[in-house]
Design goal:
Layout lengths: L15 E9 L4 H19 L4 E10 L10 H11 L5 E4 L2 H4 L3 H13 L3 E4 L4 E2 L5 H32 L11 E4 L2 E4 L1 H15 L4 H11 L11 H9 L7 E3 L2 E3 L7 E3 L7 E3 L9 H17 L16 E3 L6 E7 L5 E7 H6 L9 E2 H12 L6 H7 E8 L2 E6 L4 E5 L3
Parallel strand pairs: 1-2, 1-3, 3-4, 12-16
Antiparallel strand pairs: 4-5, 6-7, 8-11, 9-10, 13-14, 14-15, 16-17, 17-18
Helix pairs in contact: 4-5, 7-8
Length: about 400
């Protein structure tokens, strides 16, 4: 009979890969000192433990904890956890990890599923403990309420300032805040005046963008002077020496979404708050011209080639206009087609509407208008727009309010 012996080996010690996470919500010297102290503390704690391997330190500076998407280092930490590089995360407290309760529970449950533990030092609780999730939920709710309270206090202070005509921040091209006073920057003020002058002389914002680029003029932060920046300058009432306060507001402390104030909160108009760069009459003329060009749409630019269909053919799916393009046949003859602008920009995956030959459009108009040949004057005088419902299926909307659908394939 064989001699069988049981061999008992020494248990192999599995070392944990440990990382630390820190977040400071203020970008200040004291916050940076706090972060530096946390780095030193966690580095010592991890490196001094013989059962731990150092897996990195992740830190977000000057960022709120109410939304995880804004925290790049936090996202990198979670990504490394998913890649199996971390077993344990050390962090100072629940509020430093996340103030949004729903986000926190979702993250902790996911980390538990992939075998990653989180230890909250101040509360002395772990996400792997029997009552860990309950305690974390309660503490996170307190942290979220604290964040809401802080946010409301800040907003209250800003709004009280608005009532007294005080701007909470003044960052605007052409001006600088010096010792609490708003002062004009002469060379930038000249650029602002050029932008207004160009617009009233009929130049497009794209024209001005090209001119400023050729002149080497930079934006407030030293980058390219974009078309949108030029538009913002043309719409900014502060250049008249007056201020409209609370044009925008933050929806809530969780989403931090910036919303235009459409009457939800009072606005305050402060006259003669600082030295003007643009005369108020000129500013009003620019606003009227902006409204006129918006009403005209593509017709506002005299250099854009248009015809009677321009701005009148609308995609029912995208709610965007069809635009005119030239297409060539194999025999090198070319013809005009109309294509959804979204499809032309993003491809067929964004809009599946087929191109419409201009000749087919004219035939459809003749059928609908009861004419033997296409007459631009009659079309413009009766048709408001043509909605492309589906391939070869058009809905004519008349100026008198009536509608008629026609299939080009019939």
């Amino acid at each position: 009979m064989p001699d069988i012996r049981k061999i008992i080996g020494e248990a192999q010690i599995v070392r944990k890969r440990v990382a630390a996470y820190a977040r400071v919500s203020a970008d200040s010297e004291s916050a940076r000192n706090s972060l530096s102290a946390q780095i030193s503390h966690y580095n010592r704690s991890i490196l001094s433990n013989p059962e731990w391997d150092y897996a990195g330190f992740y830190a977000d500076e000057g960022i709120s904890g109410t939304r995880k998407v804004r925290r790049e280092q936090f996202q990198r930490l979670l990504h490394d956890c998913d890649r199996g590089k971390i077993d344990l995360i050390l962090t100072k407290s629940v509020s430093r990890f996340a103030r949004n309760t729903l986000d926190l529970l979702e993250i902790l449950r996911h980390l538990r599923e992939i075998g990653v533990e989180v230890f909250f030092e101040r509360e002395n609780i772990t996400s792997f403990g029997g009552e860990g999730e309950l305690m974390v939920t309660i503490l996170a709710s307190f942290a979220q309420e604290e964040s809401r309270s802080i946010s409301e206090n800040i907003k209250w202070g800003i709004r009280k300032g608005f009532e007294k005509g005080k701007q909470n921040a003044f960052v605007l091209y052409g001006y600088r805040m010096i010792n609490g006073e708003i002062e004009i920057v002469p060379e930038e003020a000249e650029v602002v005046r050029l932008i207004y002058s160009n617009f009233l002389e009929g130049l497009t914002m794209r024209d001005t963008e090209k001119q400023l680029s050729a002149m080497g003029v930079k934006s407030y932060y030293g980058g390219h002077f974009s078309k949108s920046a030029i538009y913002d300058i043309l719409r900014q009432e502060k250049y008249t020496g007056n201020m409209l306060l609370q044009k925008y507001f933050i929806k809530d402390h969780i989403s931090h979404k910036k919303c235009r104030n459409k009457g939800e909160l009072p606005m305050y108009y402060v006259e003669n708050s600082h030295e003007p760069i643009i005369d108020k009459e000129i500013f009003n003329q620019v606003q009227a011209e902006i409204a006129r060009r918006r009403e005209l749409g593509i017709f506002a630019n005299p250099r854009v080639k248009t015809n009677c269909f321009t701005g009148k053919i609308v995609c029912a799916h995208c709610e965007k206009n069809f635009r005119r393009y030239t297409k060539s046949r194999k025999n090198r003859d070319s013809f005009k087609i109309w294509r959804c602008s979204v499809k032309n920009k993003l491809g067929a995956s964004a809009c599946e509407k087929k191109d419409i030959a201009e000749e087919n459009l004219k035939i459809a108009c003749c059928i609908v208008l009861g004419t033997e040949k296409f007459e631009e004057e009659i079309f413009c005088g009766e048709v408001e727009k043509i909605r492309v419902i589906a391939d070869l299926r058009l809905e004519f909307v008349f100026l008198n309010g009536q509608k008629r659908i026609i299939n080009l394939g019939e």
